Amino acid sequence: MRITSRDNSLLRKVRAVRDGKIEELIFVEGLRLCEEAHRSNLEIEAVVVSEELWRKERAAEAIDGLSKVAKRVASVSEKLLESVSYTKTPQGIIVLAERPESSEARLAASLSANPLLVVLHQINNPVNVGAILRTAEAAGATGVITTRNTSDPFSPKSLRGAMGSAFRLPIWSRPDYAETIEWCRRHNITTVSADVEATTPYTALDWTTPRALLLGPESTGFTPEELELADSRVTIQMKGMAESLNVAVAAGILLFEAGRQRAQL
What we know:
six-stranded parallel sheet, alpha/beta, 12 helices, 2 domains, elongated, Alpha/beta knot, CATH 3.30.1330.30, four-stranded mixed sheet
């Protein structure tokens, strides 16, 4: 199907999903990320492809695979694609896919004998959320919890930063902080918060037991009450005048130390 009008019903739906008005679907943009959605066996609701990309041989196989499983497929001009794109420069293809299940049940069902979880608490920058998801998968984390008021891990910006990790990692979205801590305790998972004022270096902690790494708001950090709920706290020792690290950078340092220790088991 070829679409030539901005007011087409499919393009209206694409804009609604892009803007978070249809929660059961997610907005996926860019050939590589769309391929990841397909490989992750998400149900593909619709594929919208620019006529220019459709003509490129390097994209033909991926577009063909997506088209075979999608309920609706449409081609549009570059200008029309720009009208629904999330980025300033359209990437040639947009997919509407089912939102992956992000529930307590899914996370609980995926728990291994020695889980390493990441808890994102009120992190409101979707770029950081996506980067942490990507890092978490690369470092060997087994699941993620995003508390209430944390950016949606399936928003367009988060998905772009995660580069497919959001499709693969078990995620539980929107519990409150106290509920998360209690859930970890019930599952014998000890919690450790990243705290710039902690006295224990992150390298001194034994990361080889079931752990949940708690990462707090970028601007304010954890409240004293929230820190009290954690089983332990660690810090990343720094030089110079820097007061703190970007939360995604800190997550990478802590998670790869956990991965390093676990690799020696």
